[in-house]
Specification:
- The protein has 299 residues and is mainly beta.
- The chain is built from three helices and 17 strands.
- It has helices spanning 71-76, 146-157, 272-275; strands at 2-4, 23-32, 38-46, 51-55, 63-67, 80-85, 91-96, 107-114, 117-128, 134-144, 165-175, 183-193, 197-203, 225-230, 242-247, 278-281, 290-295.
- The strands form five sheets. A six-stranded antiparallel beta sheet has the order 7-6-9-2-11-12. A four-stranded antiparallel beta sheet has the order 1-10-3-8.
- It is elongated.
Amino acid sequence: MSVYWSWSTGNPSQYPARGAYHHTISSIEDTPRTNEELELTSYKITYPNGNGYVQGASGGTSYESIPTLDATQQAALSHNKLIGTKMDGSTEIIATNVSITPSSTEVTLPNPTQYKKIELKFDNPIEVQSTGGYIVNIQYKFRLAQSSYNRVKTQLASMANTGVVWTYNDVKLTGDTNTTAPITRNASGYVGWSKPYAYEDAHYTQNQNLGTQYIDNEVELNDYVQFYYNLPAGGRDIKNPKFIALADPGFEFKGINANGYPYTSYTQEFTQAVMDNYRIEYNYKNTGRQRIFGIIYLI
C-alpha cells in the first residue's frame, strides 16, 4: 500500500502555498476482513524519496517540485510503533522504531503470527509539505492461517485449474491533526489464491513429414514437450518422467539428446549423461515395433 497527499488544483490550476499548510499522517491500519484469517510473515516499509508540488514563488498558477517530506519529517518517519491486535483483542508491539528510509529492507518474523489488525503508528504526526508524491510504501506479506488454508483448499478442490479464491484487506489512514477532528481515508486490497498444478499439455511438433530419404541417410525426429503449469516461485521437480518413442523395426536407434525450448534463455536441465539413460524394447507388445524407453530425471 502507498500513501500520498491528493490535492485538487482546481481551474485555473493552483497548488497549496509552500509551508502555509502541512497535511499530516498519524497512523495507517491494515485489517483482514471477517473470516479471512491471515498470518503476518514479514514487512517492509520504505520512504520513496519522491517529490510533489507546491505553489511557485511567483504565486498564482505557478508551481515547483520539492520533496514530499523535509529532512526533519523524513527522520521522524522512523520514530514509530508497529502494533498487532491479536484474535482475542489484546495488542502487542511487533516492532518499535521501524526504519523507514529509501533503503529499508524486508524484516521476516521468526514466528508468523495471526493478527486481526496491524497498525503503523507514528510517535508524532508526519507533516507533508507537497502534494502528489508518495510518502510511505508498506509491504506486508501474509500466508493463510490454518483454518483459512483448509477452507480455501476445499473451495479450490471443486474448481477448474484456473479457479481463484479471493481474500481482502481493508486499510485506514488517519491524519490531519491540524483540524478539529482527525480525517480518515479508506482503501482495500485483495489477493487471489489458486491451486498449484503441472501437467504435460502438448507436443509442439507431431506428424512430421521427413520426405524421401536415401537408404544410407540418418533421419532425425524433433519434438518439443510443453507443460501447462501454475506453480509458486522456484517451481517443483518433475519426478521420474518417462519419454517413450515407437519406431518401425527397420530403424536402428542411434541416440537421443535434448535442448532448451528454441529461442529462449531457459537453462537446459537435461545433461547428455541423463539423456543416455534409455533402453530399447524390441517387438513391443508384438507390434513388431521398437520402443525407446527413456527415463529422464530433472534436477
